[in-house]
Task: structure prediction
Amino acid sequence: MMTKIIGVGNYIPSKTITNLFFDQHVFLNENGILLKEDNASITEKLKKITGIEERRYADNTQVTSDLGVIAAQAAIKNAGIDPETLDYIIFAHNFGDVRFGTIQSDMVPSLAARVKHTLGIKNNFCVAYDVLFGCPGWIEGVIQANAFIKAGIAKRCLVIGGETLSRVVDIHDRDSMIYADGAGAVILEVGNDDGAGIKSHLSASYTFKEKDYLYFGKTYNTDGCPDTKFIKMDGRKIYEFALLNVPDAMKKCLDNSGYSINQLSKIIIHQANEKMDEAIVNRFYQLYDTPVPENIMPMVISKLGNSSVATIPSLLTMILNGELEKHNIQKGDVVLFASVGAGMNINSFVYQF
Result:
């Protein structure tokens, strides 16, 4: 029994934020001291390291669940299904609904419940719940949906990844420039016998030493309220952790699928940092003593930034809708999905289209 993707959708906010947006920001270090570099140098370094030139922010009237609804509606339409037939709605996010101009996260009821309500689903046995798993949350939601389907608990699931990271950033922290907003979604159901579906998956949580590589911390502005928390990260430790552990996890997942490295058509990886993703994929292919094929890894981080759980389903939708030059997925193609993020969590799955 295979779990098959039958519909995809995304929502990419229309508000484009270029690197010039940060020109007047006052960037400080963790001790509250003004950075020596000017802002032009800081943003140029950001572009060089992460590849980010632009990112998208949600409209001031929108919250994460609103973005998730739009992505879900697109996936439902793409699949051509009646939403009343959904058995599960799984919403991956990390910070809930944070309204513009506020600092409070709202997660009760769950964002999945809010999406179900807005979709007008009356079926009480359509179960709606959220997943908090860092940036790998959407993949983890897919893995959970796959488990439900293979166990016979569900026949059809909606998995959403959405985030408005622009609402939880410290404007005095230069790391805030990488973050973005967005949402993506897929419909999964029991597949037929055409061979398409999820072939293998893998998840891991590294918490013994790595728990606080990404965390909620106080502003770098020493005059700010110490009890107000923002997303923070140790970029160097994350980079080293990802480069050490993600390629091995990807290899294990691919090996478990039964496919060879030469059968891979695409690698769809969390859009966290262009240089880091390139290094991960390079090391992954080194494990097979194989050169990296051209156009194996589509990237949209330069224009969309890092929208956490939304990056992979949004990118998948763009590819399947023919929106990316040089990238397409055909029937029979084998695609490896992978992500790394807060936890520290890593996960992956192999899918044949």
Q: What stands out?
A: The longest strand covers residues 181-190. The mean pLDDT is 95. The chain is about 30% helix and 25% strand.
